Automatic annotation (TrEMBL):
Pfam family for this entry, one: HTH_3
Entry protein name: Helix-turn-helix domain-containing protein
Record's keyword terms, sorted: DNA-binding
PANTHER family to which the protein is assigned, alphabetical: HTH-TYPE TRANSCRIPTIONAL REGULATOR, METHYLPHOSPHONATE SYNTHASE
Gene3D superfamilies assigned to the protein according to its UniProt record, in alphabetical order: Jelly Rolls, lambda repressor-like DNA-binding domains
InterPro entries tied to this protein: Cro/C1-type_HTH, Cupin_2, Lambda_DNA-bd_dom_sf, RmlC-like_jellyroll, RmlC_Cupin_sf, TransReg_Diox_bact_type
Source organism phylogeny: Bacteria, Bacillati, Actinomycetota, Actinomycetes, Kitasatosporales
SUPFAM superfamilies named in the record: lambda repressor-like DNA-binding domains (SSF47413), RmlC-like cupins (SSF51182)
Top-level taxon in the UniProt lineage: Bacteria
Source organism per UniProt: Kitasatospora phosalacinea
Length: 192
């Protein structure tokens, strides 16, 4: 066995134990869920028994995870450098584990649009939190005031726009792939 394979083997064993403990399960509880004997599971966690693919699949299911997540390594870089769009006051970070998700930080200085026709609706979901200042979220016919540390989550098929109130504000948003596509910057007032 190569050193890399040994490292992966040890990582998977530690991950099985950590996931079991995170669930608050004893060896006996996980063994029953995975249809293994308690002694077999103990030997798997302690490196005294060979890891078999069929057992890993069964353990992943019992731990409510996937085989991919169970054997995934941290070999790739964990630091993500944002893409900066100074013109629109945004920073965007992709989420490597789910390429459809983006995290966006935006500084806003303009209030939301007065004209309801400027509100957008598109497929997707959005979650946002106000990092500083006060933001106003227009959501359908509602006007929602969000202060620092308050968050909102909504389906983006509802016409919406966001802007600042009483000075600049900073917002951190999480967009799924569909919501992100619906938020292409335009030269008009800042919209969510």
């Amino acid at each position: 066995m190569t050193e890399d394979a040994g490292d992966l083997d040890g990582l998977v064993r530690k991950r099985i134990r950590a996931l079991r403990l995170a669930q608050g399960w004893s060896l006996e509880e996980l063994a029953a869920r995975a249809n293994l004997s308690q002694s077999s599971l103990s030997r798997i966690e302690n490196g005294q028994r060979r890891l078999a693919l069929d057992q890993l699949v069964t353990l992943a299911r019992a731990l409510d995870t996937t085989l991919d997540q169970l054997v995934e390594t941290a070999a790739e870089d964990v630091v993500i450098t944002p893409t900066v769009d100074a013109q629109h006051g945004t920073m965007r970070w992709p989420v490597k584990g789910d390429p459809g998700i983006s995290v966006v930080r935006q500084r806003m200085t303009e209030p939301p649009p007065d004209n309801p026709a400027r509100m957008r609706a598109h497929p997707g979901r959005e979650w946002l939190v106000v990092l500083s200042g006060t933001a106003v979220l227009l959501l359908g016919h509602r006007r929602i005031r969000l202060t620092t540390h308050q968050a909102a989550e909504f389906p983006t098929m509802m016409p919406h726009a966001i802007g600042a109130e009483g000075g600049p504000c900073e917002v951190l948003g999480i967009f799924d792939r569909a919501a992100r596509r619906g938020h292409r910057p335009d030269p008009g007032p800042r919209e969510c």
